[in-house]
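Ticket 4471: requesting a sanity check on a complex prediction with zinc ion. Repro inputs:
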Amino acid sequence: MSAPEYSVHALRYAQSVGKRSSFFYRYDLSKQADAEQHIDWYFWLLQGGGKTVLVDCGYNEERGARKGRYQGTAPLELLSRAGVRAADVDHVVVSHMHYDHVGNIGLFPNATFSMARSEFEWMQGPYANRFPTCWTVEPEEREMMQNLNREGRVTLVDDRTEVLPGIAVSLVGGHTPGQTLTEVTSTAGQIVLASDAAHLYEEFETDRAFNMFHNLEDMYGAYERLRDLNDRPKTIVIPGHDPRVGRRYAQVEADCFDLTHQVTDD
Ligand SMILES: [Zn+2]
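Returned structure tokens:
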């Protein structure tokens, strides 16, 4: 039987604006002016073959607010706009252990999960309680993931695993030790959800390094891999936080974008 083809939606739960100089690694203000950088906050909904799958799930509203991040729309409200209840979610791919990707993993009572083994081990490592790591993923969030694993609900990915027919998760590292990409067979070709392997198109298009990483070489390796994938026929790469995604693809409900339907090259 051939793999199912999925519908793929990007759900935007928040928007923010910062400075480009704080977004990119070693941004040289003597050579280029600073400017505003708009950031959108997404997670992704895949539906096909009778399955409802999420890639990531957004930050928890209260924990996000403590970091100065404010939610425009609750992730569960966005799912309900797409006709999905929390109990309908069969599987959640956790692209990496940062608060804006794992904050709501406790909300899906019937879901199984997958994530990179290296990420799972890193978050239990000896330095996981140092401040910068605790800021990016709080102990409460790590504990939720560990509890799900104890319940036997987590598949740990070593290199590349097809977590469901037509949905492959592969390890790239770089941004975090176990950052993954998710490749989806969609109704309009292959869609590669980069999540934070590239926050913005320009990271992989121009090798412009994001300012937070675990391993710079692996992050460049991920950009190269994304460029290669993006050059393949009928394959598109979707970065994790780029406002251009919300312009390029059809908005089918407020803040819900159909990634199988491109409306502009902008
Ligand atoms: Zn993120």
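Notes from triage: Residues 98, 100-101, 196, 240-241 surround zinc ion (CB under 6 Å). Leaving this open until the requester confirms.
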